[in-house]
Specification:
alpha+beta; Diaminopimelate Epimerase, Chain A, domain 1; 18 strands; 21% helix
Amino acid sequence: MPHKLIQVDAFTDRAYGGNPAAVLVLPEAAEEDWMQAVALEMNLAETAFLHPEKNGFRLRWFTPRIEVALCGHATLAAAHVLWETGVLGPQVPALFFTRSGTLTATRRNDWIELDFPADPEDFCAAPLELTEALGVAMHYVGRNSTDYLIEVENEAILRKLEPNFMMLESIQARGFIITCLSEDPRFDFVSRFFAPGVGIREDPVTGSAHCCLAPFWGTRLGKDEMIGYQASSRGGVVRVRVQGDRVVLGGQAVTVMRGELL
């Protein structure tokens, strides 16, 4: 049976920026092996699969290699598709049931806000392999439930960073968040995200990483609301708002492709 497939660039207001995600709205649950095969075929950082459940939608995310427990940009893309295709009315919140609990998305004019669980880091000693893999001075190293967070001295170091991906892949972690203060007054902080262990060398814009970045920089800057820029080759803007043990992520999205999966 054919399935409609929509590709969306998330955390951007222009086509071919931000982070691309494929979205499939299915009538019912699909086989896990099939979803993983589709994600491999799409060869994007994430492919989102959703189907109606109760008063919302069951949502699952797959990289080309594995299923993940949380993905921000593909959730943003999924909500964008539900509103754009008329599955949901323009002012109706999107409710998602996921491996990370219940997530909601709401529209705020041209922006979409996602209510996600915060995932703050704790200080930890840097593994020797991490120091060698990055090859730069690390001002701070922390670890949350899935990722390492590494603060570097300045934006020039962050942007020029070329990690040893084979060495990063040998470290037990979903990914590696590299961050520093922004030198651009439009943003509070900048970041990059590497996740070779799940099949993504560099993720263009990582919503879930901002569930760690928001409390990290919020504490240091004394702010609850900030704007982050992910400095990948595509680039993307993420608004963050810390609300207790939750983080509200704000982003924009653009549809770039519609097709049919045969």
